[in-house]
Design a protein that fits this description.
CATH topology: Alpha-Beta Plaits
CATH class: Alpha Beta
Order of helices and strands: HEEEEH
Radius of gyration: 14 Å
Helix content: 10-25%
Low-confidence stretches: none
Number of helices: 2
Oligomer: single chain
Structural class: alpha+beta
């Protein structure tokens, strides 16, 4: 029964990323990046947010809670340390180019 929530129309990956990138300033003041990732269950949209604190600690604050489903895709929030986006995510994309 749990998979009923995830059924339905989904926006394209590119459109979902673009729209969430535009909306992320409404959720956080921190640096962020959006991309698709996968795990054992499926592909999902991931909002990666740089923070001094882990997403499970009370010090990690969002302006408001991100939805579990965005444009039909499962949305996961990942808290990463400062400078992670430049050092890991964007560095890899630059190396691939």
């Amino acid at each position: 029964m749990a998979n009923i929530f995830w059924r339905g129309e989904k926006a394209s990956r590119e459109q979902a990323i673009e729209m969430l990138m535009e909306e992320m300033p409404e959720y956080t003041d921190g640096r962020f990046w959006v991309r698709f990732e996968s795990d054992d269950t499926s592909n999902h949209l991931t909002a990666i947010i740089e923070s001094e604190h882990n997403a499970t600690t009370p010090e990690f604050k969002l302006k408001r809670k991100l939805p579990a489903k965005f444009m039909g895709h499962r949305l996961i929030v990942k808290s990463v340390p400062p400078d992670y986006i430049d050092a890991i995510i964007l560095a890899k994309e630059k190396d691939d180019a």
